[in-house]
Write a structure and sequence with these properties.
About 10% of the residues lie in helices and about 45% in strands. It is mainly beta and about 170 residues long. Keywords: Oxidoreductase.
Length: about 170
Amino acid sequence: MLEMRTAGDPGRSLRQAVGCFPSGAVALAATSGGVPSGFFLNSFTSVSLAPPLVSVCVQHTSRTWPELRPRRRLGLSVLAAGDIGSARQLSSRDGDRFRGIGWEATVEGSVFISSATAFLDCRVYEELEAGDHVLVLLEVLGCSADPTRPPLVFHASQFRALAAHTTERV
């Protein structure tokens, strides 16, 4: 019989269990006075096609989310396999997160990481309290993608690239 562990730090056990599920690596960013502001997220998923919605989860302790929340538009970049350095830099708590990272901004203020594999131009649709995070639903206003560029994957607290295998399309 499978034994469930909850003793000690249940948050740690949950982090380890959820870490077994690979997730994408994304950057959420916008400009403020022409200067980019943003951060790395690995809690990103598609929610709805009609209306077009995606979601991200942001810790309540984030210092960057309060800067991004009021922006008219937010750029969500799905990072590519070669973006490990950018992901680490965008994850940092201090310093200029965008120093040395190629980025582009739209007239509306969305910021995109130039080397990413997909770009979603979004606006905040709704926010829901979710424990120590806020679940943010983003309405997708436009998007662009290059499916031939492999994505960066976050698994077991490490950045990884997908291995090239021949698989069937579903």
